[in-house]
Known about the structure:
By secondary structure, the protein is α+β, with helices and mostly antiparallel strands.
Amino acid sequence: MDRLDFAIKLLRKVGYFLLQNWGKVDRVFTKSDFKDLVTDIDKESQRIIVESIKRNFPDEHIIAEEGIYEKGDRIWLVDPIDGTVNFVHGLPSFSISLAYVEKGKIVLGVVHVPVTEETFYAINGEGAYMNGERISVSGRKNLKECVGSTGNYPGFTGRLILSLDNRVRRIRILGSAAASAAYVGAGKFDFFVAKRISPWDVAASMLIVRESGGKVTDFEGNDANIDSRSFLFSNSLIHDEILNIVKTISEES
Ligand code: 2AM
Ligand code: CA
């Protein structure tokens, strides 16, 4: 079975399931702390995805946010809901992220945003697409014209926004790292900064951004990989300028 076709159809199917439950979840549980949520819908979404992978690719392995950590050379990285807080609160920015990784190399990535019916995807060496149309990063070089995004990391995000405030046109916080990074690939955002996040959040988007002509590094400026934890996604043209700001903020803490 064609992996890309499989992954897109699967995420769209799970997207419909999520929309039926969006903003209607009554039981919410915390994980590592009060900011980190999970619901029965995250678990059910993950169960559907995992079952489908196991049925179609029985020899391959899975790492998934809600408690699956298998080892192997051929791994599917699953985030069943990226942006659970938005999902619970009935806000539209949440996504499903699925990446396929061979020996540490991201081969395929799909990010689906159910509310807007945007499916972003990329195959290594074959470009990046949204709903069948080729996408590419923006051509903005001047920070004053740039609209960028970040996650929420206590003690970091506030200072980052203070520092960017007078230099860029706008900063937006959407609440889904996978979608925010994919939006860099589509040229909607010019950059996205994420501190301390997990491989399932951004593995698919990393490939989407690179295949659309963008750049993805860690906060030291090294090319990011699935073991990285902090990321700068950009259109590549403004990468160094934003990286310098991020570095300054990181050093202050
Ligand atoms: P999640 O919804 O899959 O947990 C929210 O700011 C963004 O950061 C979301 O993409 C969220 O993913 C991600 N994130 C990663 N680790 C997190 C954590 N420990 N607490 C809250 N959000 C986290
Ligand atoms: Ca999640």
